[in-house]
Amino acid sequence: MRRDGVPSAGSAGATDPGGRQGGASREASDDRRKGGETPLRASEAPLRVQRAGFVSLIGRPNSGKSTLLNRLVGEKLAIVSPRPQTTRNRITGIRNLAGAQVIFIDTPGLHAPTGKLGAFMRQTVERSLEDVDLVCVVADVTEPRHPDPETLAMLRDHRGAAYCVLNKIDRLRSKARLLPLIEAWRAPGRFREIVPVSALTGANCDRLLASIVDVLPEHPPFFPADATSDQPETFYVAEMIREKIFALTHEEVPYATAVRVEELAERTTPQALYIRASIFVERDSQKGILIGQAGGMLKRIGTAARHDLESFFGIKVYLALTVQVRRQWRKDDRALREFGFLMTS
Ligand SMILES: Nc1nc2c(ncn2[C@@H]2O[C@H](COP(=O)(O)OP(=O)(O)OP(=O)(O)O)[C@@H](O)[C@H]2O)c(=O)[nH]1
Ligand SMILES: [Mg+2]
Fold this sequence. Notes:
Oligomer: single chain
CATH superfamily of the largest domain: P-loop containing nucleotide triphosphate hydrolases
Number of helices: 10
Strand order of the largest sheet: 2-3-1-4-5-6
Number of strands: 9
Largest sheet: 6 strands, mixed
Strand content: 15-25%
CATH class of the largest domain: Alpha Beta
Number of domains: 2
Structural class: alpha/beta
Distance between the termini: 29 Å
CATH architecture of the largest domain: 3-Layer(aba) Sandwich
Bound molecules: guanosine-5'-triphosphate, magnesium ion
Helix content: 25-40%
């Protein structure tokens, strides 16, 4: 998602109804000519099957769903933290490949919902199972329960294909430890494939992506070839600020925090992005922690977020943050709606 005029892959050239890029096929025929072969006429060119579809990533909190989404899409779209219940919304990430477009949906971790925000997060997972072509259950191999009964229960009403992704294999001391886990997830007979990966190192993620593409239906792309998400930029900005709050504050504070972007404006001379955002907490004591001594904590959050935003957008970013108290916002329908946590339908 660059704003510095650097074209993203596939942005040049029109896409025909079959999803092939004009530019790309021209290049291919130039190559053939260089190699001394007679170029194929359009009618003789082998037809590549175009696939496109939606893939949900579900699983227990902290299993690595967001890390996997970022890895499979090839861009950091979802925030990650070592603590559970980091993701609150449905996050989409689009991977465009030659002949396929995969739309991944990252979801909040499956846990017993507490309060209205918890109920929203749960509903978000349930909705993410509707109308998808594939569900990937992401399970952390270092967790004690395999298969996790709650995750299996979630799949009970889902009729479509499901894969089990055994994540964090980099943390296993020996590969032999993987075999009983594979058997445990195979036993219910629910999963078409069981794929061990490390979302962190990328190990086996290409194989996972290839087998995901295999089950997608033949369909033209749903989004333009250079799209990486369907969410507005303001959503990512708010999420990146929230990620820094997860990284720098403790206990209840990150869970009691919501971020709203009030203004996002691009100016051209010099080219920069001006962002103004509010951080909401539930109590004065939390506000004190977020601001810190002499504003030190807010400054650290702002600097860390600005750094990431600059590499995300590819241009200079000015970021102004303020902290406000909105008492009990996690129980307040109006506040929840305002911060984007109520289903619209
Ligand atoms: N060692 C290792 N750590 C990983 C791997 N994948 C994710 N992690 C770490 O696990 C933690 C949780 O990762 P997330 O991607 O935020 O997990 P999540 O499933 O999205 O969590 P929620 O949004 O809270 O449900 C982070 O500290 C990640 O760096 C992996 O393959 N190996
Ligand atoms: Mg997450």
